[in-house]
Structures are given as structure tokens and as C-alpha cells.
Q: What sequence folds into this?
DNA sequence: TATATCCGGAACTCGACAGTACCGTATAGA
DNA sequence: TCTATACGGTACTGTCGAGTTCCGGATATA
């Protein structure tokens, strides 16, 4: 019968594509994106950084926008493990425990990538969705759990808007880094927790 | 003697440059910048929008970066009048009074301009300074006065960090608009005031 | 072993844009 | 009135980068 090759997606011949290189190329894309921004980034830069040929890139992604979209979408990897979130017993303790060098470094790179694609976001709903999913949502998810636990244990009133609380931290960080160009250090982050987030959550200042 | 024409900056001859067109050209630049972003913007677009010749632009600004820098720097015009700030007697009243359609419209355009140049800011200290001065500082200045008055009248403790308080509102707005792509409406702004800014300022929830 | 596809790399095409030059016209000072 | 410059507009130049094509070599199927 040979009834359509729906079940045989690749009865191909010859050397097979080495998909172990995909992550390396996407990482290179993110690096260049973070360093030069979307328009400053060239395919040659990415290929050189990944030690790959330009043709190799075009065999896998049909265009520059597709490559960037995929790179951003595949970024959700090195993320906070939602199963192993700190559980110190207090909201403040949990929030501070989330400030760890690896998390900060990860967030810094994400911010630079975000800066590089902000102007595209307004013009590409797909990229906007990918950025949302990969850059914004993971952090919000971690915060959400921590706040939810605080509500459950009665530490903060359940009248609070958890979705709003989740965005305060990221918003302050993004604004300081991208708009003000000031460093995001531990002192700043703790100040945010103590003077903005916890008051907004309804925690009495100690 | 003819001792240097230091005192004669323009003993020129012929038709004079029509400087009344400068603001129109800079406005056109900001419009295109807001719509397409820095890299998407072309000098031809700006010239067409301003109904000017490209040569006219290059007679006044030596390059695209110079033009954009000047346009951003000259943006502080349609700003909140610091002399005529609302004075309702309460911090909440003052903050809400600052939410007016003209202010919102102004802020939206500034946000789009900001989005268009964010990726350049990291690479151009001059542009970063101009954006800081024209887009960030005016709003912070208005907030600063309002908070200062609240401290002076004893409505909020003078232990608060006014500089930090000033950035909360802009940060939440920028994050919502640029990162989340959600609308910045009156409801959102009032929610920010009541659930984030006032608690951070140490105002007891009514 | 033959063939088809992969690889990194280099050379190429093609379109877009920054910046320049020039047109005919308008306007200021000598 | 003459001259030098500005104006809006168009055409040109030079560069740069996206995307394509081809190379010699590697590798998997038949």
C-alpha cells in the first residue's frame, strides 16, 4: 500500500543532521543577542561563535527571526527548580533565599536578552509570547509559590493580589538595570523585599 | 587685525536656516522612533514625515545617532509642570491627581520611544544620559515633590527612602507595558498606588 | 562501494540604508 | 541685482548583512 509516508517522517538517505549542535547554536545566538541586540546581531557572528557554518544554521532555521524566536523559547532551561524552592518558614526568608549568585547571573543574562529584543516585541506577537514564557513566567512562577505558601500559613492576608505581588520584584529589577543602568546587587534586592514587597504583601515591619 | 572671528559666530551670507523647523523634525524623529525602533527608523522616513529634504536633516545633524540623541534630549518639553503639581492634602490624592489622560498619553509615547532605544542605551552612554534626563528624571521629580510634602506634613515617616519610592510607579508601568505587553489603564495605576506604593510609603491602609 | 546528505567554510547575489551630490527654487545680505 | 546659502526632492555611492551556492571532506544507508 505505502499509504502516505505520514508514519515515515524521515526515510532519508545520507549523513544525518547532528542535533547535538542545536543547543550550542542557540546558546551562541543568545550570547550575541545579549551583547549586541537583535539588529546588531548577524548570522555570521552566531555561526562564528558556535564554530559552525552559516549554511548549517540555515539548514535548521529558515531565517534570522526564526532562529531568535527558537533561541528565546528554548531559554527556559537553566531555571529555578520549582520542586526545590527554599522553604524557610517565613516569606522574607524564602524571598531572600531566592537571591543566590546563580539566580542573579541567570537573571542578568535574561535582562540583556530582553533588552536586545524589547523593540521587536511590539511588532512580533510570537516573539512576545516566547519572551513572556521563557523570561517572565518562570520567575513569576517561583514567586507565586512562595507567596501562596505565605497565604496558606496565614502570614499574609489572603486578600492580597498574588499576581500583582509577583511582578513587583522583576519590575523593579528590570527598571533599574535597563532604564537606570544601575547595578542590581544583593543590597538593592534586599531593600526591595523589605521596603516594597513585604509592605505590599501586608507584612508588619519587624 | 581681524583678530579671529570668535566674536562673530555667523557673519554668513545668503538665505538663513529656518530654525523653526527643528522642533518639527525632532518630533517626526520621535514619532518614527516610537513606531519602528532605532534600527527600523530610516532618515528617509523622518524626512518624509517632517516634509523635509534629507539634505536639510544632514545640514543640521551630522548623523543618525546625533539626530536621535538630540530628539531624545529635547523631549522633556510636554512635561508635568512642577510648579503646578496637585496639592490635595493627602499623598493618595496627589498621586491619583497625577493620573490624567494627558500624562498617560505622554507616558505611553515615552515608553515606546524608550523601547525603541533600550538596546542602544547599553552601548551609548550619551544616549543613556539623555534618556535618563528626558524620560526618567521628570517623572521622578514630580513624584519626589509629592512624597517630600507627605513627609513634611507627617503623613509618612521620614525614614522612608524617597528615591526608591519614586521609582516604583515608573518601574511597574514600564514592566507591564514593555515586558508584559498589557495595557496601562487607570485601574492598574490606582491599584499600584493603593497596594504597592502607599504600603511601601508606610501609609496605613484605610 | 556508490550515493545522498551532512559538516565548516568561503564566495557570491541582492536589497536596504547612511550619507553625498546635485537639481531648480526661494530668500537673505551686499 | 548679484551672490551665497537654504529649501524640498531626486539620484547616486558605498557598505553591510540576509540569504544562497558551492567547495572538499565526513558519514550514514543501500
A:
Amino acid at each position: 500500500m505505502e499509504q502516505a509516508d505520514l508514519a515515515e517522517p524521515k526515510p532519508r538517505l545520507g549523513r544525518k543532521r547532528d542535533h547535538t549542535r542545536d543547543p550550542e547554536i542557540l546558546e551562541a545566538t543568545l550570547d550575541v543577542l545579549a551583547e549586541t541586540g537583535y539588529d546588531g546581531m548577524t548570522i555570521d557572528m552566531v555561526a562564528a561563535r558556535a564554530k559552525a557554518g552559516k549554511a548549517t544554521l540555515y539548514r535548521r532555521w529558515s531565517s534570522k527571526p526564526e532562529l531568535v524566536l527558537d533561541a528565546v523559547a528554548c531559554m527556559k532551561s537553566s531555571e529555578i527548580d520549582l520542586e526545590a524552592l527554599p522553604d524557610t518558614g517565613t516569606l522574607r526568608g524564602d524571598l531572600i533565599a531566592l537571591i543566590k549568585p546563580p539566580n542573579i547571573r541567570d537573571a542578568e543574562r535574561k535582562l540583556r536578552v530582553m533588552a536586545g529584543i524589547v523593540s521587536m516585541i511590539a511588532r512580533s506577537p510570537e516573539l512576545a509570547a516566547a519572551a513572556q514564557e521563557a523570561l517572565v513566567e518562570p520567575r513569576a512562577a517561583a514567586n507565586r509559590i512562595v507567596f501562596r505558601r505565605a497565604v496558606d500559613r496565614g502570614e499574609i492576608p489572603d486578600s492580597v493580589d498574588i499576581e500583582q505581588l509577583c511582578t513587583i520584584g522583576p519590575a523593579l529589577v528590570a527598571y533599574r538595570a535597563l532604564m537606570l543602568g544601575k547595578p542590581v546587587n544583593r543590597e538593592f534586592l534586599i531593600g526591595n523585599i523589605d521596603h516594597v514587597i513585604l509592605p505590599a504583601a501586608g507584612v508588619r515591619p519587624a
